[in-house]
Design a protein that fits this description.
Blueprint lengths: L1 H10 L17 E5 L26 H12 L5 E5 L9 H11 L3 E6 L4 H4 L10 E5 L5 H8 L4 H13 L4 E6 L8 H14 L2 E5 L7 H7 L3 H6 L15 E4 L2 E6 L2 H7 L7 E3 L5 E3 L4
Parallel strand pairs: 1-2, 1-9, 2-3, 3-4, 4-5, 5-6, 6-8
Antiparallel strand pairs: 7-8, 9-10
The structure holds iron/sulfur cluster.
């Protein structure tokens, strides 16, 4: 793995990870795609550029080696994603092992449908935050979006997280005609307030297929202004937030927009399920 990293850094002529130059850089975050497949089939899924057919071969040992290799470059944050990261069998051992590597925050992003099954492998003392995708509270729309009838599993999993003291953030992707009317926006805010979960609205990425983007994209700033949330900051990466009844509400702009406003803020490395490394902004 060290060899992998060495090659990655040496070969990349324009390598910039919070970079000062090619040989002096920081890697504040490592995003680890544990597995390429998923138990849902969201119509907008671009899987961050990873094919669901990519072999998922990385094991806990590889991941720990990768973290050790970059930890002295200012690593502060490890984020587990997929596909669906809760499908990774050795999750419990992995989380404990990463915690022992050093003082860094561990995040998981999940669709939430397997939380109930995997709760015994998780720990609020290890995981700094779990982000759970929840675009709608309507069963019918959930099925339409994900092609699965798993909303009740997700809600049951979220209830468990709440009861067990996890810090939870709901990720709500804004999709025109599905969840951007005032009532849907209010419903998701009220659900988060009731459960004490932070809420992140997300702008649809242009990395999704063109038909989907054209049909479902909405301007997130205009949409959220309808319910009194004005995210129109001059710099798109300002990460302005609102506190509503104790919960934090943020807006995550798409990578394209972040790129236009800041080349460095979201920088980091990604470890792919096949063992390769990429910089955070895949092309
Ligand atoms: S849950 Fe995430 S990874 Fe799975 S299909 Fe939906 S968007 Fe893709």
């Amino acid at each position: 793995m060290k060899q992998f990293l060495f090659n990655t850094f040496s070969d990349k002529k324009d390598f910039k990870i919070g970079a000062i130059d090619r040989f002096e850089f920081e890697i504040p975050s490592l995003r680890i795609s544990l597995i390429s497949n998923c138990n849902e089939k969201c119509f907008y899924c671009h899987n961050e550029g990873i094919s669901s057919k990519m072999p998922s071969v990385i094991q806990t040992g590889d991941i720990i080696n990768a973290i050790y290799s970059v930890k002295d470059y200012g690593l502060r944050k490890v984020k587990f994603t997929g596909g669906e990261p809760l499908l990774f069998k050795d999750l419990k051992n992995l989380l404990y092992s990463v915690k022992h590597v050093g003082d860094m925050d561990i995040f998981i992003t999940t669709n939430g449908a397997l939380i109930k099954k995997r709760i015994k492998d998780l720990s609020p003392n290890i995981i700094s935050k779990i982000s759970v995708s929840l675009d709608t509270l309507s069963e019918e729309k959930y099925k339409f979006i994900t092609d699965k009838s798993l909303l009740n599993d997700v809600l049951a999993g979220l209830e468990l997280l709440g009861k067990n003291g996890y810090k939870v953030e709901i990720d709500n992707l804004l999709l025109k005609g599905l969840n951007t009317d005032k009532q849907s926006l209010k419903n998701i805010i009220n659900y988060c307030i009731k459960n004490g979960f932070d809420l992140q609205f997300i702008e649809l990425s242009d990395k999704t297929t063109a038909g989907v983007y054209d049909k479902y994209y909405v301007d997130p700033v205009k949409t959220l202004r309808k319910i009194g949330l004005d995210f129109n900051t001059e710099k798109l990466n300002d990460r302005k937030f609102f506190k509503i009844n104790g919960i934090k509400v943020t807006l995550c702009r798409s990578v394209k927009n972040l790129r236009e406003s800041s080349a460095g803020r979201c920088s980091g490395l990604r470890l792919l399920p096949n063992g390769y490394l990429k910089d955070f902004f895949y092309e």
